[in-house]
Amino acid sequence: MVLNKLRQSISPFLLSLGKIIDRKGIPAIFFTIMGGIISGLSALLFAYLPRATYFAAIALLIAGIFDMLDGSVARASNKISKAGSLSDSTVDRIAEIAIFSGIAFGGEASPALVAAALGASLLVSYLRAKGESLGVPVSGLGVGERAERVIVLIAFSFFGIVSLGLYLVLILASITVIQRFYKILRTIEIQKDAAGMLSL
């Protein structure tokens, strides 16, 4: 996808920035936690300033920057770990739930739309985890990964049309769920057929 290509193009810059931050002695977990805190602030802004959602959009943008930096610092310091991955994924899911809850509380979209968009978003993450547990990596597959969904939400929130943004998030996430489910299922079936042929 376009964002994956963009990540690849700016990866050297982010790695260099990560090395500078690492030399300052700031650990990756700091950026994970700060990203979560600022995401929480964004959720509060959605909830209590529903007529000025550009404030929430700005907070969400800053949270996204922190989210990028935690991985860069971890790679630069050669401290990528399962514990760090667990922390990052958990904070991301909590942040996602908080932000969608803030939108619902602020009345910027119907509860049904918020629930549907959140559910589809969580399914995208679930299928990535399930795919990895089954030996079928699907990271990078789909038109509505977390980065795409966040960018859509930031853009539409900045112009005060959160509801339309959620409709697009729902569509992108749903397409990604279908893409990932099909890839995992298809790969499992191929592996099953191959195993059956080998046993003959």
Describe the structure.
The chain is mainly α and 200 residues long. The chain has one domain (2-198): Four Helix Bundle (Hemerythrin (Met), subunit A). Helices cover 82% and strands 0% of the residues. It contains seven helices and no strands. Helix 2 runs antiparallel to helix 3, helix 4 packs antiparallel against helix 5 and helix 6 runs antiparallel to helix 7.
Number of strands: 0
Amount of helix: over 70%
Full CATH superfamily name: CDP-alcohol phosphotransferase transmembrane (TM) domain
> What ranges have pLDDT less than 50 throughout 5 or more consecutive residues?
none
Order of helices and strands: HHHHHHH
SS field, number of helical segments: 7
TL;DR of this structure?
The chain is built from seven helices and no strands. The chain is an all-alpha fold and 200 residues long.
